[in-house]
Amino acid sequence: MSQRRIGVYVCHCGGNISDYVDVEQVAREIGAEEDVVVAKTAMFTCSDATQSEMEDDIRQFKLDGLVVASCSPKLHTLTFRAVAERAGLNPYQYTQVNVREQCSWAHTDDREGATAKAERLVQAGVARTRLTEPLVPLKVETVPRTLIIGGGITGLRAAIGLADIGIEVVLVEKEREVGGWVDRLATMHSSRQRPQELIAGLREAIHHRPGITVFTEAQVIAKGGTFGNYEVTIAVRRNEDHPISIHVGSIIVATGFDVYQPELGEYGYGIEGVLTLPEFQEVLRESEGSLKYHGRPVETIAYVYCVGSRESEDQGDAHTYCSRYCCTATVHTALEVFKHNPKMRQYHLYRDMRTYGEYELLYSESRKKGSRYLKFAPENPPSIQKAGEPKGEHLTVTVHDQLTSNQELTISADLVVLVTGMIPRENVDLVHTLKLPVGKGGFYNEIHPKLRPVETVVDGVMLAGTCQNPKTAAESVAAGLAAATQSASILKKGQVQLDPQVAVIDEARCNQCGECLSACPYEAIASRPLTDDDKGPRRYVINAATCKGCGGCVPVCPVEAIGVKGYTPDEIRAMIDGLLREVVAPV
Amino acid sequence: MTASETIKDTALPRILVFSTNNISDPGVDLAGSAHLHYSPNVVTISVPCSSGIRPSLIEYALQEGFDGVFVAADGEECAYLSDCSERTARNLATVQQWMEAHHWEPQRLRMGAICSVCAESFVSYVQGFSHTLAQLGPRGGQDHGV
């Protein structure tokens, strides 16, 4: 048995755990271990009273390890790390054991089985804790400046938010003007202002904030340094020979989306009068009074939904996701069209209407005003053809409507609008420069869409808006403000602590084969000379500031010389042993 | 650990799940939050990314007493590595070679994508796996290379 002095606290969680697990038995049995100095139960381990009791125990019994068996680590890891720290115990010598979500709640039908499982889980937690070592987070001074990449509505709003909190902003926009997609829209349902007025207001607001510097026709071409003090290099088109170098504490990526562009012939695209939704928005924006297209009055419009969205996985490079915004955008556009001509005939050919939340009101309103909705099956999509003479300028749309017994209906339309979704914007160089994680469908991956929705695993690099996934403008702005808040909360402190649970190399084992170098996309492993002689013997080192602690390098090492602190092979083997041990009740 | 200390002859197969902190662990948590039931002999060890699981640790788990190992991978949602699934699959192929050489049934190792809302999928996976392992019968009597 080890020489450690470990304290174990098993939570009732009111009854959420103890109704299904005999927590007293769990504490009694783990308390029989020689190196478990304290083993207690508590009604709520997270309560102030129990936290104080833990702190007292750590000091009184000189504990050098702490195990809390309660809920998911997602909830209270930081709480109990803080308990350890307040009592003088290294916070990384504490282990959270999940006996609620992964035990009592999953086995409410089996008290005996749940109790035996809780005993094994706690055994494993104690086994790991025996091997823990004190870890110290790396502290890094931060520069109170944020780089925002992308000057669409998300980036502009984030820049204003940050400047108002007192963080300097450098905004880089690839195009000649900031404004992005919103600047090209005819109308927006989420704003009473015209989109161009909205963007003009944001431009004005930026102009009046001296803390915001904008580079247009510019791109980020390099990133060096580490979290808190990244050195970014910006190339401006009109002065490409003299790139600008700027130090920033954090980076917000708000590079936006592209619109799906149909192939020629796809739903009749290429025939005169068949437009995508953004193309139709341009027509609408230019129209005064009655709606016309190429000088002809428009009296009938057919909208075909889900073009380039929710495609079958069988297709190569399929866009299998729903773009979320397009149903609402189309219904809103149809309402705007009614303002031009209340008698306009508008047919919506859809698969499923997804005007979620309050947007349902728009859908109801469009129906009241006369829009007709026809539901088609994905395996039997509408066909669009040029009508025969003498009505050569008209289009014929044929659809089988599932709501009228799959009846074939033919619509004679002046315009067909293909409701195209959002696709990820290709930006290979930026992905490589910032080490952005690219996920499902080609959009950038946050750590967790709900729990950590703007952070990436690259510390200090955040995402906002439609570069993450399809969003409405309102949702994009919300993400931009979230990223601004997150960025400010980091930079306002003046320094950050980096998770010390990163890779570590056992130099005695390492034979410098080089396998690990190519395994790390974050370039956190480097070969360094042992002495001043660059051609002399070398050693491999981990850059703790850039290592993400994923462990991707661990299995590629043929001599098992790499591990991740907190997840070492010895710790995991000890947990496996603990999970298999039969707990023998003390006599 | 001595043989007498190990759990023996339990009715339900013992399954070790490797899950990931950010993506699959919340999915396993969600199964519990929804009070979806599965065998209490299914236990989980959380790691940052499935591609970081050393093959020798899976081999150790099988040697020491688990009837099967399930790797809950992040699929395309991994926040660290875009090729996380491919890397994990390569590592598991190494384990499979080891299993073949030591006469372990290949069905004792599984990998599946479990995301943060995959509660029902997780339960379905482990229940199916438990059933498969029960049909295989108890481990032992083979050259397990121990």
List keywords for this structure.
heterodimer, A: 587 residues, alpha/beta, Rossmann fold, FAD/NAD(P)-binding domain, 4 domains, five-stranded parallel β-sheet, 14 helices, 28% helix, 25% strand, B: 146 residues, four-stranded parallel β-sheet, 4 strands, globular, disordered N terminus
Radius of gyration of chain B: 15 Å
N- and C-termini, Cα separation of chain B? 14 Å
Number of helices, counting only DSSP H or I runs of 4 residues or more of chain B: 4
Output the strand order for the largest sheet of chain A: 8-7-6-12-25
Helical content band of chain B: 25-40%
CATH homologous superfamily caption of the largest domain in chain A: FAD/NAD(P)-binding domain
Order of helices and strands of chain B: EHEHEHEH
Mean residue pLDDT of chain B: 87
Q: Any idea what the shape of chain B is? A: globular
Largest protein interface? A-B, 60 and 56 residues
Textual characterization of the structure:
The complex is a heterodimer of chains A (587) and B (146). Chain A contains 14 helices and 30 strands. Chain A has 587 residues and is of the alpha/beta class. In chain A, a hairpin with a 5-residue loop joins β21 and β22 (407-413). By secondary structure, chain B is an alpha/beta fold. Helices cover 38% and strands 16% of the residues of chain B. Residues 1-10 of chain B have low confidence and may be disordered. The radius of gyration of chain B is 15 Å and the shape is globular. The relative contact order of chain B is 0.22. Chain B has a four-stranded parallel sheet with strand order 2-1-3-4, with helices on both faces. The chains are: A alpha/beta (587), B alpha/beta (146). At the A-B interface, α4, α5 and α14 of A face α1, β2, α2 and α3 of B.
